[in-house]
Sequence to fold (341 residues):
Amino acid sequence: MASRSSSEAGPSNPESGVGTLLANKLPSIRILRPPPSKGSPRVDERCFTYCSQSVGGRINGAEPWCRTICLRKVFEHEMKRHYMSYDPSDTDGVKVVDMKYPLPPEGQKSLRFFPWVSIADHPPHSNTDGTVNNQVQDSGSSNRPTRYWEEGWYMWMSKSRWGAQEKLDLMLQDLEAQTEWYEYKSRAQAAWNKRQEQAPPPPHSGRSPSSGSSPSLPSPPPPGSQSGISRQDSRNQPNATELAQQHVDAEMILPPPDHVADSLLIHLPPPFEPPFEKALGPAQRVLSKTWKSIEDGHQARLIGRIAEKSITQEPFILAQNVCKKVWELWTQSSGGNEEEK
Fold:
């Protein structure tokens, strides 16, 4: 018996091994879908802008009424950078580094975009020349951690035409170039504020040049006057016209427009469909099977059998037996309690 079993089991092993090898040698087709890279034709941002202007606003030079909304999809390749390593000990040879690009100012703090947010929560910042800076000064922004771009969906909204124009320009750049642009804007704004604090007021000017009137030029000193400077040395000194022109030039060198107070950037939550599908999957399968049984007629046949049984005496006999059993248990339990007492 042992020899027969061994002889029968012997040739089965080579046949199974040959079958496995032949299956491995058969050609196969693999479909690989790599994540979108820098050369992908997929759309990662869509913007919708609507602007209008009235007749009076055009005559008075008022800003147009604009609303812009953009949807941005940040992919994985924008958040990771791959570096090739030539270390012999490294078997992989590729190092993946997570990039951290800070969000723009409109994504770092809550802004006065929605009408139900009080203006007192974000008071405007006034410069030394009396002009109001549009940049929102949040009292608690210094204590908040810096927020960075993450993979997922973002929604950007603005009611500034400058913001819409800047957004269209930034659609040409990646996150790294956009970060450099925001850093440049911050440096330019800081330099502008410092220059405004250090610049002397224009001589004999009742109003600032930004009010729409040309600055008044100071009258030159009378000829032959000795104000501590000789006539020959005064040739090297700038006259009143040059001083006024330098002041006007300093006023005209403006930083890029700041639209932070009129813009908002929020990170949309991840889609909630997969968790709900996982939680409601069993209920969906039960409902599908129930509906299939109804279509097949199983539920109708079950209802017919129940109706047939209800006409007979079997349900009444079953109910009578149940009532008798409950009464016996009740009387036995009450009798036992009296004996214990």
DSSP finds eleven helices and eight strands in the chain. The mean pLDDT is 72.
